[in-house]
């Protein structure tokens, strides 16, 4: 981060985001209070609704629209959005979902956090529309955590020490610190980091791309810093209720684990995840039923997003 006023760009990935995009864009000017907003890129995955019309009607922002021409996935849209920027002229890129709303002055604390050497990613405190905490921090995926979550569930595991991957203890969100990774709905990336580790992995399409990126950054010595002084409102997606998206999430986290760990560790991890989803499928959870089917019978449908 260069001395003086931080120079920041924002990349927003859209896909049929007409209902939420205007609120996101309207929050940017106040959210950027204290920094120089050098550019805003809306990277659109071939929306069929009025997303592009809404983006084009917003004034007062240094906004450009990048159209991918197809639903290429979250990582591909981020890469296209970043490619439209001149990284030599900015200090950081704030990647956010269109269903996010920036609180006034919320970018500056993230920029200040990255002034410390070794920090490459900063993430804000994420809240629901009613102001309640939305847990967003994660621990490193491990076989033990997968086994514990299979037996007692991820929410409960997250409340017992460090047994779960998801950090659910509200006290952990009151103080800044390092995390292994965090939800990709809002990630503030150093331009130096982007230049060093390269683009996001587009093979994941949706889900686990942020995990892979954060862990890859960590492999190269870059820390992910959680900064509660920055607050962002996130409406949230529907992976918890949409069976196809839930299946994609499950398959991708297993795929990522396989890439990073030994075959034996991956096999144990795979069976732990399958066990957990299988038990919940028997209890009637539709998302788990779709997930276990996808794990046992891989489908090409999960390798291509809807156009």
From TrEMBL:
Residues 10-136 form the Glycosyltransferase 2-like domain. The chain crosses the membrane at residues 264-283. SUPFAM superfamilies: Nucleotide-diphospho-sugar transferases. InterPro entries: Glyco_trans_2-like, Nucleotide-diphossugar_trans. Signal peptide: none annotated. It holds the Pfam family Glycos_transf_2. Gene3D superfamilies: Spore Coat Polysaccharide Biosynthesis Protein SpsA, Chain A. It comes from the Bacteria. Keywords: Membrane, Transmembrane, Transmembrane helix. PANTHER family: RHAMNOSYLTRANSFERASE WBBL. This is GT2 family glycosyltransferase.
